[in-house]
Amino acid sequence: MNDHNTTPSNSIQRQDKVTPKFDYTAVLSEISEGTQQDGLITGEQLLLMPYEKMPTLIEPILQRTGIACLAGSSDTGKSTLLRQSVIAIVTGETDFLGFPINAVHRSAIYVSTEDLESETIFLLKRQASKYTPDQLKGLRYIFGNEYELKDKLDEALTNKPADIVVIDCFSDGFPADLKDTQRIRAYLNPFQDLAQKHKCLILFLHHTGKRTQNLEPSKDNLLSGQGLEAKMRVVIELRADLMNPAFRHLCIVKGNYLPANYKRESFVLQFDEPNFHFTNTGERTPFELLVKNVNTEQDKEKWQQAKELTDKGVKQDEIASIMGYSSKGTISKLLKKGTEKGWDK
């Protein structure tokens, strides 16, 4: 790559073309009318839409519109994390775990099928203790298993728009075998349409398989057929740290619009269990280091690469960039694992 402002000798010199001015206002005004008439939208209309980057609710992790999933094993704090996110959105916080919030309505709906009113009162009072009751007026709850949930949400979102709908949890509302991929897709399609209609995010809480904690974080760990993760634009796995019970790992295992380094390392969270509160430590951990008692050749090859670069005097932040990781802390952990495994002997 040429770092200088020079032109290669074999390049073709061309004069800049002057593009005549054109008023696209009329074209833009036709978008709504055209799509209503035939249900189609042209490439011209799409390119004229005022989007220069992917619209997000929690930047850059969660998109503004569509469906997403947070999954994990029992007692990792999934519901707590989701409650914390909606509290941050409705109270006007500028960020969630250090990620900017781009809320439009400062409104959320939480569908709770497991924690009912009395339990939620206790949890919410503890978790939102620093806020006054009027600051949570943008948070609405639906309790219990709603068989006509889509229609009830449609009515609620029509009466008052929301930035996010949390459905806690997916398996309580899904009426069939969790391995039935076709039924899962058919069940999720109306929710996807609902999210598009009301320009909001619908986020499902779900569970991972019992033995998946022995595997690397992956979208394949979800307790369901492939149809669930395939419909989601974003899938996040929350898992406990292997050594320290106060830490959790937020692992983005699917993100269609995210750079690869977001999907290789966890975001390490500290969990204040008495106060039901998560904070971002700023640390990242490679997915391969979140697996118990695994000593694969692939891990050893990564350690070998990091060790050879270290021996050559390359700094750890540079090694991280070379190997596709986000920080030198990841390289430090990788080298430490190699020492513990005896790979340096």
Could you characterize the architecture of this molecule?
The chain is an alpha/beta fold. It contains 11 helices and 13 strands. It has helices spanning 25-38, 43-47, 78-90, 117-127, 149-159, 170-173, 181-198, 226-231, 297-311, 316-323, 328-341, and strands at 56-58, 62-63, 66-72, 95-96, 99-100, 108-112, 139-143, 164-168, 201-207, 234-240, 247-255, 265-272, 277-286. Strands 7-6-8-9-3-10-11-12-13 form a 9-stranded mixed sheet. Strands 1-2 form a two-stranded antiparallel ribbon. A two-stranded antiparallel ribbon has the order 4-5. Helix 4 links the parallel strand 6 and strand 7. The chain is globular, with a radius of gyration of 24 Å. The chain starts with 24 loop residues before the first helix and ends with a helix.
Write the layout of secondary structure elements.
Layout: H1 25-38, H2 43-47, E1 56-58, E2 62-63, E3 66-72, H3 78-90, E4 95-96, E5 99-100, E6 108-112, H4 117-127, E7 139-143, H5 149-159, E8 164-168, H6 170-173, H7 181-198, E9 201-207, H8 226-231, E10 234-240, E11 247-255, E12 265-272, E13 277-286, H9 297-311, H10 316-323, H11 328-341
Parallel strand pairs: 3-9, 3-10, 6-7, 6-8, 8-9
Antiparallel strand pairs: 1-2, 4-5, 10-11, 11-12, 12-13
Helix pairs in contact: 5-7, 9-10, 9-11, 10-11
Q: Low-confidence segments, ≥5 residues, pLDDT <50?
A: 1-28, 30-34
Strand share of the residues?
15-25%
Number of distinct beta strands: 13
* Helix/strand order, N-terminal first: HHEEEHEEEHEHEHHEHEEEEHHH
What class do helices, strands and sheet pairing give?
alpha/beta
Distance between the termini: 40 Å
Counting DSSP H or I runs of 4 or more residues, the number of helices is 11
Largest sheet: 9 strands, mixed
